[in-house]
């Protein structure tokens, strides 16, 4: 079958990633989150493709399956739980361990299993699995940005799938007989030159798309462990479990020499920002529809498109205070510890009486904004502020739009925003899971190395789409924090 995307001779991995991301955006082939750049694309038809995992012979034979936490793989995680198999999901970015074992409630309904297969379910219905656990995984499901029919895979460029497999090999959880499957859109199946695949790269045995099941018969070996010379001290600092594994391997006499901190592998990605991706209104009769996307996919797509339209209104205009003590069109800027214009100011909530003053301080030019959605009706801004402080994610400025169930958090620079996104994963207030991601205005010009993350669940989706704007909610407030 001729690939939809032509790869030019001499293309690098980043060239291929960029071409696939651009194509998916241009053809409107993805659901939320958008744009897909620097992500594993949540493509339209993902649920249909994921359902094909149950057709594989190895699926019927294995009791334990490891599935990555990417959004487009949610259907694969659900299929594993519905088959009453053990589901193992890596901890996001390997921050707190290798992976978690998902443990649904006894006699869980289909709706409960759907929640368990979401990112929130990974947090609420799981127990950690350590390096010393006796685990045997015969089937691994990973996401990809691009993959070839020969089994050569390219991820989003951070190496987590490769490291996860290497760590599982080191702990004896996988073997040469372990089958690796990836789930992608048909357009993501491209020609990848073999010379781009290195010893630490994970290859795949099967490719599942909305229309095909491709057996690759890949002959390249999979990683047999962690190749320490491919890592550096900076990576170990970010992933504590790598430190633990390195110490264990050093004890048994293995060579654990690290590599040097590399120069920027793709300097062009830093010197020129990617062009902002335009969004097209989805067409009614698309080729994807003609291919017979399932009703479940159609519902998810309509839901995502409706959510996206809701997020685009009202316009997110937030004017800076000019220091004249007047309220601007969109909100008020406060600084902790003082009242407006030097006096005391009471907020509407009885438990939110505070002393905060109109700030005349300008935010730094590198300020980066995080969008926080799914805020439940009735939540007070003071409760959100407390939660942010507890997670050490207090921003320079907080813009509160309770009536629209959202808030905006301004941080000093992209690194601070990234740390906040990490800390806000799985944030739940008043029984509702909140979503945290870079604000839309930040994503178009995002530099390589920063990840877009969207943390949401079906519960968060319901709270956004089902809860009407409350007329009695507090007006928008913008609060500035001392650092």
Helical amount: 25-40%
Helix-and-strand structural type:
alpha/beta
Form type: globular
Q: What is the number of beta strands?
A: 19
How would you portray this structure in words?
This protein is 28% helix and 15% strand. The protein has 16 helices and 19 strands. The protein has helices at 13-26, 46-51, 57-61, 74-82, 110-116, 119-124, 160-170, 233-238, 240-251, 268-271, 287-290, 295-311, 381-390, 414-423, 440-443, 458-466; strands at residues 64-67, 86-90, 99-102, 126-129, 139-142, 146-147, 153-154, 179-183, 206-208, 213-215, 333-336, 356-358, 368-373, 397-401, 406-411, 428-429, 432-433, 435-438, 477-480. A hairpin with a 4-residue loop joins strand 14 (397-401) and strand 15 (406-411). The protein is globular, with a radius of gyration of 23 Å. It starts with 12 loop residues before the first helix and ends with a strand. Residues 264-294, 311-361, 445-475 and 479-483 have low confidence and may be disordered.
Features:
483 residues; eight-stranded mixed β-sheet; disordered C terminus; alpha/beta; seven-stranded mixed β-sheet; 16 helices; 19 strands
In short:
With 483 residues, the protein is an alpha/beta fold. The chain has helices at residues 13-26, 46-51, 57-61, 74-82, 110-116, 119-124, 160-170, 233-238, 240-251, 268-271, 287-290, 295-311, 381-390, 414-423, 440-443, 458-466, and strands at 64-67, 86-90, 99-102, 126-129, 139-142, 146-147, 153-154, 179-183, 206-208, 213-215, 333-336, 356-358, 368-373, 397-401, 406-411, 428-429, 432-433, 435-438, 477-480. The strands form 4 sheets. Strands 4-3-2-1-5-8-9-10 form an 8-stranded mixed beta sheet. Strands 12-11-19-14-15-13-18 form a 7-stranded mixed beta sheet.
